[in-house]
Write a structure and sequence with these properties.
There is one protein chain. By secondary structure, the chain is an alpha/beta fold. Helix content is about 30%, strand content about 25%. The protein has an eight-stranded parallel sheet with strand order 3-4-5-8-9-10-11-12. A seven-stranded antiparallel sheet has the order 2-16-17-18-24-20-21, covered by helices on one side. The chain has a four-stranded mixed sheet with strand order 1-19-23-22, with no helix packed on it. The longest helix is centred in the N-terminal third of the chain and has 21 residues, at about 1-20. It is globular.
């Protein structure tokens, strides 16, 4: 008899737990707040999208239309050109010789005419984060590759020339920011010298075009970089020390900078108390220094998983979890442009087919195909749909109206990283237009069973109409991206029956899904689409 009681108690406990998980989540937007202006926000990709040996000139030349279509499908509205033209105005062949002579050979695919890339972005409505090459740069006067630490004024002169070139070509409106080098982790000089070079470049560049925004780099990952001197005496230092000393050395000239550029990489630790999330930068760098309090953040590269990581090629990590982090970044009040998502190319990216062999970008232990006859096939990974949905939401509705997470703020850090175990939860982000007549809602569910959401629409709406209700799911969220050209293991589906009920909408969410809802207020008596 006792065993039956225990069994009955266990069943009740199980039902109670499942019922708790299945309770409705209420999202109340009856009085939406203007939490953030999203008009200066967009999610983007890096030029690293073409990792793997393909020549960028091919995508920007013969395959330009195909490349443009792929970018539209991924909703890319921002490109970060970390290697726009390694030595700025040197041509491809000259750049190759100069880089090899400097002892810094790079893959051929990074050598191309920058005008091709700028014109491509202008044609396709894509904004740009451009970069000034540091620590080395091509000096147009001497036609030599020089070190910025030894020639700060020459570096500044060439950086200004690059800015002027962009303006003269009619591309200035495309550039949202100019990044001074890539990562402060690559500490190629002492902090005081870095400050001298950065101030010289920013001053010369703003003299060439006062309208530009200049970003100085933050750090690229969490943890401590031990001292590692090289032949040139360069060293790696812990991020807070170098950033604090370097920025402090700029003094009042720090006001020449507009952004602190963040590289947020991590395996669940991007936002931890011991990590290097935006709040820690605010606490450790900006608040203690009165010359830095005007700085806002721009994210120029980020990913949530380790590198390389096959999880990036699954729906669960690439679409769902990276989507959650993207929503976190968009919700941060001081973050604007967000570029360089690694999951876009590592979660699919490009597939190369050659002599019957296939190579999937980001596959562990595999090198790019060196065969010049290899035929690349553009194949977007699972994050592409999420990027498109988020960018469409903030373009149509540029006011952040609400955000939340049932597992707490920045819940991406709470995810269990062992195997396929997850922390069930629901994260959401809502945006409205200026007149509060249209609403975009994105919901990220890591629940292991279907969920129901009650959405309370803005007060005063007379006739809420559902314009779009669709969900993005996978039969197996942990299945890998297919490289054989067959159907991928994820899909989008319409959600039927999302109808207003007494000023609210009931939205059913599948397990492990990304869902979007577009609702607008229509004239009284108008039929619901």
């Amino acid at each position: 008899m006792r065993s039956y009681r225990l069994l009955f108690a266990a069943v009740l406990l199980l039902l109670s737990c499942r019922a708790t998980e299945a309770q409705n989540v209420v999202i109340d937007l009856r009085r939406p707040e203007a939490l953030k202006d999203l008009s200066r926000c967009a999610l983007g990709a890096g030029e690293e999208f073409t990792h793997g040996g393909i020549e960028y000139a091919d995508l920007l030349g013969p395959r330009r239309a195909e490349f443009a279509q792929a970018m539209r499908e991924a909703g890319v509205r921002l490109f970060r050109f970390a290697t726009l033209a390694h030595y700025d105005f040197a041509g491809a062949e000259a750049t190759a010789r100069l880089m090899q002579a400097a002892g810094h050979p790079q893959p051929l695919y990074r050598w191309f005419d920058p005008e091709l890339l700028f014109s491509f972005c202008k044609e396709n409505g894509i904004r740009v984060i451009a970069m000034v090459n540091l620590p080395y740069f091509y000096d147009t006067q001497s036609e030599r590759v020089l070190e910025a630490a030894r020639h700060p004024q020459a570096c500044a002169r060439n950086a200004a020339r690059f800015v002027s070139w962009v303006k003269e070509k009619g591309f200035a409106d495309q550039v949202v920011a100019w990044e001074l080098g890539g990562e402060i982790a690559d500490a190629w000089c002492e902090p005081e010298v870095w400050a001298q070079v950065s101030v010289a470049c920013a001053r010369a560049m703003k003299a060439a075009d006062p309208s530009i925004k200049v970003a100085v780099p933050g750090f690229a990952t969490s943890g401590h970089w031990a001292a590692a001197p090289t032949e040139e005496g360069k060293r790696y230092v812990e991020w807070t020390t170098f950033s604090r000393e370097g920025l402090a050395a700029t003094g009042r000239d720090a006001r020449l900078f507009d952004y602190l550029a963040l590289h947020l990489y991590g395996w669940g630790d991007t936002y931890n108390a011991n990590g290097i999330g935006p709040e820690n930068f605010r606490r450790d760098l900006i608040r203690p220094n009165g010359n830095l309090k005007h700085l806002r953040f721009i994210v120029t590269a980020w990913r949530f998983t380790r590198e390389p990581d096959p999880g990036d090629q699954t729906f669960f990590w690439s679409a769902l979890q990276h989507g959650k982090v993207a929503a976190d970044l968009l919700a941060d009040p001081q973050i604007e442009w967000i570029g360089g998502i690694r999951a876009l190319h590592r979660g699919g990216g490009l597939v190369y087919v050659s002599d019957g062999k296939e190579w999937h970008l980001g596959a562990p232990g595999q090198d790019p195909i060196a065969d010049p006859l290899a035929k690349p096939r553009l194949a977007l990974g699972p994050h592409a749909v999420v990027m498109r949905w988020l960018n469409e939401a903030i373009a149509a509705c540029p006011r952040l109206a609400g955000t939340g997470d049932t597992t707490g703020r920045f819940s991406s850090t709470q995810l269990l990283q062992e195997g396929n175990r997850v922390t069930p939860g629901l994260q959401w982000l809502a945006a409205v237009d200026e007149k509060i007549t249209r609403l975009h809602l994105l919901l990220f569910s890591t629940h292991t069973r279907p969920e129901l959401v009650d959405l309370r629409v803005p007060a005063g709406w007379k006739n809420p109409q559902v314009v779009t209700a669709e969900t993005y799911v996978a039969d197996d969220p942990f299945a890998r991206f297919r490289v054989d050209g067959g159907p991928q293991p994820w899909r989008t589906e319409a959600i039927p029956g999302v109808n207003p009920v007494a000023g609210a909408l009931q939205v059913p969410l599948p397990a492990f899904s990304v869902t979007r809802l577009v609702v607008q207020d229509g004239p009284t008596g108008a039929p619901t689409p």
